[in-house]
Amino acid sequence: MRVLIDTNVVMDYILKREPYAKNAYRIVQMCVNKEIDGCIAAHTVTNLFFILRKNLSVSERKAVLLKLCRVFTVVGLDISKLISPLVNNKLDDLVGCLQDECANEFQVDYLITRNLDDFVHGKVKAVKPDEFLKLLKE
């Protein structure tokens, strides 16, 4: 099974944000253990470097992001992925659309996010972390 992990779920994992950290940890560990094939979008890495500046030093952020890049496949952006949300009138969230474009390229089964509203019109099925874990048990 292939999944794209949205930035908010990665942040839950890194920052141990409650009440979401446990599910984020379980999902990341499944990727680490190769139980599922996980990816993140390239812009997730740059966004996290900026967002985490309040919590971690530059060297800590680099170390964390390097570990993520070693665990996940990082799906890059190209001009077609950038243009897609700009011409799609159904999508208002640029970052969400870019996540969806990267998920579609990696041919994921699910995009795991806590912001389902950002992916209502997406190409890929978006699920919350707890829903994803329940799907695995079925």
In short:
This protein is of the alpha/beta class.
Tell me what you see in this structure:
This protein is α/β, with parallel strands linked by helices. It has one domain: Rossmann fold. It is built from seven helices and five strands, in the order E-H-H-E-H-H-E-H-H-E-E-H. The protein has helices spanning 7-15, 21-32, 42-51, 58-71, 79-87, 94-105, 129-137; strands at 2-5, 37-41, 73-75, 110-112, 126-127. Strands 3-2-1-4-5 form a five-stranded parallel sheet, with helices on both faces. Helix 5 (79-87) crosses helix 6. It is globular and about 40 Å long. The two termini are 14 Å apart.
Terminal residue distance: 14 Å
Quick one: CATH class? Alpha Beta
In percent, how helical is the residue content? 40-55%
The major pleated sheet works out as: 5 strands, parallel
Question: How is the topology of this model organized?
Answer:
Blueprint: E1 2-5, H1 7-15, H2 21-32, E2 37-41, H3 42-51, H4 58-71, E3 73-75, H5 79-87, H6 94-105, E4 110-112, E5 126-127, H7 129-137
Parallel strand pairs: 1-2, 1-4, 2-3, 4-5
Helix pairs in contact: 1-2, 5-6
Which structural traits does this protein have?
138 residues; alpha/beta; Rossmann fold; 12% strand; five-stranded parallel β-sheet; 54% helix; 7 helices
